[in-house]
Known about the structure:
Blueprint: H1 17-37, H2 41-50, H3 54-67, H4 72-88, H5 92-105, H6 116-131, E1 139-141, E2 145-146, E3 152-159, E4 168-176, E5 179-187, E6 200-207, E7 217-225, E8 231-241, H7 270-292
Parallel strand pairs: 2-8
Antiparallel strand pairs: 1-3, 3-6, 4-5, 4-7, 7-8
Helix pairs in contact: 2-3, 3-4, 4-5, 4-6, 5-6
Amino acid sequence: MDKAIPGWVGCVAMPPRPVVxxxxxxxxxxxxxxxxxQETPISQATEAWEMGKVAQAGKLYxxxxxxxxxxxxxxxxxxxxxxxxxxxxxxNELALNALRNAAIIxxxxxxPALGGPRAKALCEKARKEAxxxxxxxxxxxxxxxxxxxxxxxxxxxxxxxLAPLFEAMSLAVEDRPGHVVHAEERPLGDVGGSAxxxxxxxxxxxxxAAEIPVGSTLRVRVxxxxxxxxxxxxxxxxxxVAARSLPPPTVEAPSPPPPPPSRGFWHGPWPxxxxxxILASAVVTIAVAASAGGGDTVTLHAPTWQAASxxx
Length: 312
């Protein structure tokens, strides 16, 4: 027989029994994964709030704030909805305290309708009080780039008048989404600044060069934390890290050509010069000897066609 599923989802006709058994088995198999995905108090609180269960959601939001580790958006939502829930049960002062915290994070926070007119009045009061305070701003001072093998030094600042509300600042450095290469937390008890409105509390961080990947772009994220380690504000910046330069290639100078091999005396021009000198000397000697012998005719040794006779 068909049945109806009671509850906030409305009435739905049930399918035949065999199908029901199969669907139930699948739901049981998938239930552990869904339960694990919704185990955190903040996710359970958000689900309860969206279902209109204000009291249940308010308690879960309180547990989420006490457990810590919330992002700025979750911290803001938790304070606003805890304040609205407390207002519905007549805890006006406690409700106002939660809404004041929300106004520090965002002076223009939206007041939920589920809190009713009492919560709306308290929201307006908290926003007016926040208008006379400094706005929570967090900034990061970081260089655009850093050289290889150089420490990265950066600073985070927030209004000094609000610094006593917080416990610490956290730093996370990523070289790609989700991959943290450096993380640390510094207390805010000894931050420096100047007295008076508009003064800044400043905290410096140093990331050792050994922890910085070369040739990357770092995502630097700083957050201000309360005593439960919930984030109230975040600031981020990008820093380029220079790539490691390669040494210039070594170019060897070309070797001078080897000297020509020595060919000795007989392979040079000197034999011809000496031979020519000896031949000339012999010709002169012969001519002088012939002249001394008294002959009538002196014939110079010249080619036959140039021979000439001279008579005395």
